[in-house]
Write a structure and sequence with these properties.
The complex is a heterodimer of chains A (224) and B (420). Chain A is α/β, with parallel strands linked by helices. Chain A is built from eight helices and 14 strands. Chain A has two domains: 119 residues, Response regulator (Rossmann fold, 3-Layer(aba) Sandwich); 97 residues, Arc Repressor Mutant, subunit A. Chain B is of the alpha+beta class. Classes of the chains: A alpha/beta (224), B alpha+beta (420).
Chain lengths: 224, 420
């Protein structure tokens, strides 16, 4: 899997690359529009992370270039400017997703995974990890080919952990992921514990291995 | 009191003063004039009479000259040394049945070796009549002056002060956050055009300062996003390091929470700046109850965490043409508030009335201070974790939509109502 990171803050792109490497992505990092255009000319990427405000121009021109060349690289806009207009413009120009800064790397990773899944298995979104199977189009989980009764939030949470497998996902990131922008409210994350408990119970009942590890109250890790 | 009325009061006061002084002055000078006139005519008659005496003799004079005159008496006297005397005397006039003042001239005359005393009499104006006349005149003049002053004032306030009232009206409706340039009526009066220029300069400076302040807030919030993203990335990577002790995990969790709080604060500041900059122009038709249900669904879980009972009362749905995102944020913030400040096993009542949404919650807090309620960073309880901007944003959104956001404390329930 190849990912291009177009971001002028090198410290940030380095950290993103470091995080994504554990998922076995190959990451190229560029810091301006010019180099980004050079890269997309030569290579095909599974996903491009695109900042909008770049020193030598606007990230939208990279999107336009992709569209003109009929390239189907998945694009996630990562912008400091969380404006609706930018979001709409970006999506109209063919971006697949829009992630406003600041974000959790686990969230970014999950979104990249989702885009790659969509692009690779168009219409047949089955994700298999040992005995665990996800049908991401139907939003179903099965263990040993037996479907489980998961609530929407439980499904989201489990898929989020799986998308960041072997990495610790913080409770903050989980709360934001399953509740969207309304996480303003949470002073305690007991509800995550309640969800995890339910998920583990359901998986155990279906004779699934216990992959979910709690990391000292900091977060959870799906270890496989 | 209006400026005009104030000046009018002084004008009228002065007019009254002048007239009060003028009445006795007029009286004395009139009296003097009348007396002089009477004296003059008496002397004139006397000399006419003398001439006649000398030419035609006393008999003829008495017959031809003096008959039409009532005020003429001729008496023979011995004492020829008496001098002319002129004086005023009051006599009863039987014809008009009144005591009337007369001016009398007595003089001696030698005609055909005989001494005569001649008394010439002329009636003059009565004192009372004179005073009455003068006072009447004074009152009429005063009335004319007051009426005139009022008319002039009315005209002045209508015409000349018109620009002033227009300026006042414009200033009353001027809002620095409306970001529209102030338009003042043109005036050819130099004072008003000076005032216009001064106000325009002041308003423009204010607008400029306000605008740059707003832009600063928005830019600063935007600029904060990237460093926040960088911190978040570092924290996320730190979490992946091995080995991790429990103590380190606690520290990382703390860092992560703080970073989240700064992000939220920044997000809310940005939202406020965007509201100030009128960046939410989209409108769509939305059912009030649908939005309420959606927001309730989002917050149900949080309410359950505190075991809060949610009671809903849908009375009248309305379709509003408004910005959906802002509407959801507004309701979300109020729900957030109602849950955050609620007690365990508390209650929240959500009502949708014909022209209002009412969200009421139980709380251990006392009635809130309405003056500070909607101001930035005014926390009225010890609850932590909030950004102190929730209600400010709610208020700002309500203002933006031209709705009314009100707080009431009813039956130990804190009640926020959005009236549209």
């Amino acid at each position: 899997m190849k990912v291009l990171i177009v971001e002028d803050e090198e410290a940030l792109s380095k950290d993103i690359a470091a995080y994504l490497k554990t998922e076995n992505y190959l990451c190229d990092t560029v810091a301006n529009v010019h180099s980004a255009l050079d890269k997309i000319d030569v290579f095909d990427y599974d996903c491009i992370l695109l900042d909008i405000t770049l020193p030598d121009g606007n990230g939208f021109s990279v999107l336009k270039e992709l569209k003109e060349n009929k390239k189907t690289d998945g694009v996630i806009i990562i912008s400091a400017k969380n404006s609706i207009d930018d979001r709409i413009d970006g999506l109209n120009l063919g971006a697949d997703d829009y992630l406003p800064k600041p974000f959790h790397l686990s969230e970014l990773s999950a979104r990249i995974a989702a885009i790659i899944r969509r692009r690779q298995f168009a219409g047949n979104n089955i994700l298999t990890l040992n005995e665990l199977t996800f049908d991401t189009s139907a939003k179903m989980v099965a263990v040993h080919h037996v479907g489980l009764e998961f609530t929407r939030k439980e499904y989201d949470l489990l898929l989020y952990l799986v998308s960041n497998k072997n990495r610790v996902v913080s409770k903050n990131a989980i709360a934001e992921h399953i509740n969207g922008d309304d996480t303003d409210l949470y002073d305690n994350f007991d509800f995550i514990y309640a969800h995890i408990k339910n998920i583990k119970k359901k998986l155990a009942a279906a004779k699934c291995n216990d992959y979910i590890k709690s990391i000292y109250g900091m977060g959870y890790k799906f270890e496989i | 009191m209006k400026l005009l009325h104030k000046s009018l009061r002084y004008n009228i006061f002065f007019a009254i003063l002048v007239l009060i002084i003028a009445v006795p002055l007029l009286y004395f000078s009139m009296q003097h004039i009348i007396k002089d006139e009477a004296d003059e005519s008496l002397y004139a008659r006397k000399s006419e009479l003398m001439t006649h005496f000398r030419k035609k003799g006393i008999q003829d004079t008495l017959q031809n000259f003096t008959i039409p005159w009532k005020g003429f008496e001729l008496m023979p006297v011995n004492n020829h040394l008496a001098l002319d005397s002129i004086y005023t005397q009051e006599k009863y006039d039987s014809l008009i049945e009144e005591v009337v003042p007369y001016r009398i001239l007595e003089t001696n005359m030698l005609v055909q070796d005989k001494h005569y005393r001649i008394r010439l009499t002329v009636s003059i104006v009565e004192k009372e009549e004179l005073i009455e006349g003068i006072v009447k005149m004074a009152v009429i003049v005063l009335a004319c002056i007051i009426a005139g002053l009022y008319l002039i004032n009315w005209y002045v306030s209508k015409k000349i002060w018109k620009p002033f009232y227009k300026i006042l009206h414009t200033l009353n409706h001027f809002r620095v956050d409306a970001a529209t340039e102030i338009v003042l009526p043109k005036s050819d009066v130099s004072e008003f055009s000076d005032l216009n220029t001064a106000i325009k300069n002041l308003a423009n400076t204010n607008l400029q300062v306000y605008k740059s302040q707003k832009e600063f807030t928005e830019n600063a919030s935007h600029e904060m996003q990237t460093p926040l993203a960088m911190t978040q990335a570092k924290i996320d990577l730190l979490m992946q390091t091995i080995p991790l002790t429990e103590q380190q995990c606690e520290l990382i969790s703390g860092l992560s929470s703080i970073n989240r709080r700064i992000s939220l604060l920044n997000k809310n500041l940005l939202l406020l700046a965007k509201l100030d900059n009128n960046q939410f122009v989209d409108r769509e038709n939305i059912s009030v109850i649908d939005v309420c249900k959606k927001v309730l669904e989002q917050y149900k879980f949080q309410a359950d965490q505190k075991n809060i009972e949610l009671k809903t009362e849908w009375q009248n749905d309305r379709i509003l043409s408004t910005n959906k995102i802002l509407f959801e944020i507004l309701l979300g913030n109020l729900m957030n508030n109602a849950i955050r400040h609620n007690q365990e096993n508390g209650k929240i009542v959500i009502q949708v009335l014909s022209n209002a949404i009412v969200i009421a919650n139980t709380s251990s807090n006392k009635e809130l201070n309405t003056n500070q309620l909607f101001r930035r960073f005014q926390k009225q309880s010890n609850e932590t974790g909030g950004t102190g901007l929730g209600l400010t944003i709610a208020k700002k959104i309500a203002d933006y939509m031209h709705w009314d956001l009100k707080y009431n404390y009813v039956d130990t329930m804190h009640q926020f109502s959005i009236e549209y």
